[in-house]
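Reopening this one. Same input as before:
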Amino acid sequence: MTTPASNADACNNLALRKAARYLGATYDKALAPVGLRATQFSILQQLSTHDEMTITALADMIAMDRTTMASNLKPLAREGLVTVETSATDRRARIVAITPDGLARMKAALPLWSGVQGEFEEKFGGAQAAQLRGFLEAVLGTGFEPWAE
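Same output, byte for byte:
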C-alpha cells in the first residue's frame, strides 16, 4: 500500500517546485542589488531580443499564463522599464516593449545573473545543468494545456 509520505516523495510537482523555489531564491538574492527579481530579469532578457511583442506571446515564451504575465509587467511598467500599450492593429491586444532604462537595468543585472549561473554550474556540474535544462524543456512538450480555457 502506498502511504501519503511515499506519495509526496514521488510527486514530480513537489520535487520541481522545491527545486524551483530553492534556485529561484538564489537568483532573486543575486539580482537584488539591481532591484530585480529573477522573473523580472527573465522578462527583460526576453524583451531585449525582440522589438516588441504581445503580452500573450511573451507569456507563451516564458510558459506563464497571460494574467500572471500582465501582473508581472505592472511593476516593470511603473518603474519605466517596459511599456505596455494597446496594439494599433488589434485593440484587444496589448503590446509590451523594453525601454532604454529597462535595457540598462537588464545589462546591469547580467553580470550578477552570470555569477550565480556560473556558481550553480560549478556546484551542480555544467553537463548536468545542461541536461537538467533539456529535461525541463522536454516537460513543456508533454501535452498538458495548463492555461487552456
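So the earlier flakiness isn't reproducible anymore. For the record, Helices lie at 4-9, 12-31, 38-48, 55-62, 66-78, 100-124, 126-139.
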